[in-house]
Amino acid sequence: MAQSLSGRYYSETGHTLDAEFVEYFDNHGGLGILGFPITDAFVDYWTGLVIQYTQNGRMELFPDPASDEMQVRLKELGILFVGDRALDVADPLSIKSSADCEFYSLTGHSICFMFLDFYHEHGGPELFGYPVSEFTIENDRLVQYFQGFRLDWYPENPPAQQVLVAPLGRVHFEVMDYNDDLLRPKAPSNALMYEVVELQPHASVAKPITGSSDTQRVYVVVRDQNLLPVSSAAVTLVANFPDEARTLVFPPTDEAGVTQLEIEFEGQTPGAQVNLEIYISSGTVLTRTSDSFRIWW
Known about the structure:
The chain is an alpha+beta fold. It has seven helices and 21 strands. It has a five-stranded mixed sheet, with no helix packed on it. Strands 4-5-6-7 form a four-stranded antiparallel sheet, with helices on both faces. The protein has a four-stranded antiparallel sheet with strand order 10-11-12-13.
């Protein structure tokens, strides 16, 4: 993340949070609630407003009639996507006595258990708006809709990550049928602001099967979190033959993020599998991938 007068650039998605939205973003949950920007700011051809999408929301810049100044608001995506689930209204008499639930008469819905804890810990109605559904099952997961967001429950996650904000920003972008070019990552105005924060390597071999005495060429392509090629990445191979493990160093990846090397071997046992462990690093970011081939004759 790097900030300039034009906004705040996020290498994670390759987009700049526009300067007009930075303060609102920071005061309304930031990355933890709104997620990373997935577009730069652009003019919505439906409304004429300057808007910007994040993973979980959509911010809009609109003229405030009371002050004649431009204000930022969050589009109420929860209301847009709740559908018929809003009709399942809670019975307030059945939950008023429960310490685990709160009923909101304004919308006729309650919040309970882990959703209630998350709701209060992260801003309550001022941030999320009021509940517009009960908790319900959607795509085999427990969810609940609020005016601005949807919360999803992931019981398989560690306790602090069991309730997550759903990516309704991305869903709404797709529903609106905007040009996909708006999602494409962009380089920052200053190239030094771009950071590789994740490596996504892919390995392949020239020959899935070989002879007992043969050569094998191994290819590795390295891309970053935005699927952009990573040049000058360091790549190391550990080739596990039946009788030994060989450690070999690839040349650094080229401008296309590609590197390759050749392995020579003799007298290997037919039917054996050679497992390839490949370790990749760029700066302080490390990862690994794997492949294999079989000795066949």
